[in-house]
Amino acid sequence: MVNPNQIVAVVDDDESVCRAIKRLLHASGIESETFLSGDEFLSTLSAIPSYRPACVILDIQMPGTSGLEVQRQLASIGLPVIMITAHDELSVRQAALASGAAAYLRKPFNAAILIRAVEMAINGPLRP
């Protein structure tokens, strides 16, 4: 379960993907904010120092700053990142996971898997 005060940032250059993920998260009780580029998201982080989402769902291939570059810039502040992509390449997957991505999902992804990935990214793995 995700704390209702926590926000998930969704960063994808495809507005329909942003809307779909936002609806899916909302239906699961998770609030989110969407950004249509890595640059827009990074600008918000810079402009509003108190803005810290609990997790970032990040598209890899975007115009301007790529998802991998955004992930690299987020590493210093420790935000959990879930990478999503329509073009799965082994080297990109390995780079994202090696850089600390909490999950790497190929579009189209299963809704339950995305929700579980978000919960695990925010709360950490379940303890037996």
What average pLDDT do the residues reach?
91
Q: Compute the gyration radius: what is it?
A: 13 Å
**CATH architecture annotation name:** 3-Layer(aba) Sandwich
Cα shape: globular
Classified in CATH, the superfamily is Response regulator
> How many independent structural domains?
1
**Class per helix and strand makeup:** alpha/beta
Outline the low-pLDDT stretches. Answer: none
CATH class: Alpha Beta
Beginning-to-end CA distance, first to last residue: 16 Å
- Count of helices? 5
Strand arrangement across the biggest beta sheet? 2-1-3-4-5
Order of helices and strands: EHEHEHEHEH
Which percent range fits the helix content?
Answer: 40-55%
How many E-type strands? Answer: 5
Q: In what range is the share of β-strand residues?
A: 15-25%
Describe the model.
- This protein has a five-stranded parallel β-sheet with strand order 2-1-3-4-5, sandwiched between helices.
- The protein has five helices and five strands, in the order βαβαβαβαβα.
- The protein is α/β, with parallel strands linked by helices.
- It is globular and about 35 Å long.
Compose a concise summary of this entry.
The protein has 128 residues and is an alpha/beta fold.
What's the arrangement of secondary structure elements?
Elements: E1 7-11, H1 15-27, E2 31-35, H2 38-47, E3 55-59, H3 67-74, E4 81-85, H4 90-98, E5 103-106, H5 111-123
Parallel strand pairs: 1-2, 1-3, 3-4, 4-5
Features:
128 residues, 41% helix, 5 helices, five-stranded parallel beta sheet, 5 strands, Rossmann fold, globular
